[in-house]
Design brief:
The structure is a single chain. By secondary structure, this protein is α+β, with helices and mostly antiparallel strands. The chain contains 2 helices and 6 strands; from the N terminus they run αββαββββ. It has one domain: Roll (Thiol Ester Dehydrase, Chain A), CATH 3.10.129. Helix content is about 15%, strand content about 40%. The protein has a 6-stranded antiparallel beta sheet, covered by helices on one side. A hairpin with a 2-residue loop joins strand 4 and strand 5. It starts with a helix and ends in an 18-residue tail after the last strand. The relative contact order is 0.18.
């Protein structure tokens, strides 16, 4: 199975600048997925992490794994536009090598256990076949809360004294 960016945008709610998956190369329904993140010097976080020696923050590598997991989970959910996935836990995260501009992350996520709205994954991020990061993640699927227009604040808020 292959999903390009248009297919990805149909499945998960993330958008620029926080969409961290560019393509899906493989997917075994409800079991495993392999996705790609092209790491570009144009990413805004490289301005401050670190000037003169840009390195992709580890937390964003984990987020790209989580977004890959979301693609796997939401692919077969009929009402996916009404669902969100939340991190519940990250365990045993290990960062093995820096990820720098020009690298291509190959993200592999496997389902360890899936019961109801909770799923445990094992995620791996590779650069040129070398393990860059790995982690166990638990995500929970929940209904998206919608805020009706009538519930928005329209009256001025009184200033604190």
């Amino acid at each position: 199975m292959f999903l390009d960016i248009n297919g990805i945008l149909k499945l998960i709610p993330h958008r620029y600048p926080f969409l961290l998956v560019d393509a899906v190369e493989e997917m075994e329904r409800l079991k495993r997925i392999v996705a790609i993140k092209n790491v570009s010097i144009n990413e805004s976080y490289f301005q401050g992490h670190f000037p003169g020696q840009p390195i992709m923050p580890g937390v964003l590598i984990l987020e790209s794994m989580a977004q890959t997991a979301a693609l796997l989970m939401l692919h077969d959910i009929p009402d996916r536009e009404k669902k969100l996935l939340y991190f519940a836990a990250v365990d045993n995260a290990r960062f093995r090598r820096p990820v720098i501009p020009g690298d291509q992350l190959k993200l592999e996520v496997k389902v360890v256990n899936w019961r109801g709205p909770v799923c445990k994954f094992q995620g791996y991020a590779y650069v040129r076949g070398e393990l860059a990061a790995e982690a166990e993640m638990i995500c929970k699927m929940a209904d998206r809360e919608t805020t009706p227009a009538a519930a928005t604040v329209t009256e001025p808020v009184e200033k604190a004294r």
